[in-house]
Amino acid sequence: MIIRVVLFFILYIVSMNILAWISNINYVSVLIASIAACVLGLIWYSSWMFGRYVHAVRDMSEGAARNINFPALINRFVMLFIGAMIVALFVWWAGLTQWLQIWFLIWVLIMTSMLSGAAFESRSMSYRLVHAGYILIAWTLVGGVIWHI
Length: 149
Fold this sequence. Notes:
This protein is an all-alpha fold. It has one domain (about 25-149). The chain has helices spanning about 1-20, 25-45, 50-55, 60-65, 70-95, 95-120, 125-149. The mean pLDDT is about 80.
């Protein structure tokens, strides 16, 4: 019984702090940062940058590569928006410099996981590095946009 009461109060305090933090988010900056990351992704994976290479590795035809999967794009935008809200909380809580330090360590963790996964899949290391590069630049852009707006 005592454990339930303690857990209830811990969850209550945590939820109150999260609600207080969420009220400090600038949703306009989160929206703009999400759109910026989406546009960066469209450019990053276009034929001007790495799109041809990614499509060649995935054995996609030229016609299939030109078709935009709108449900996947909307899903990506929603995930970017949720992630940008979390970044906004980090930037509000820690500041931009600390966010960049924390983000770099998180990126290294993500990158090591992605690159170790390449050993078990049929994708090349350079294919994984293209995605890791996008992740690094996109989330750094999100933090910068949120900080400056």
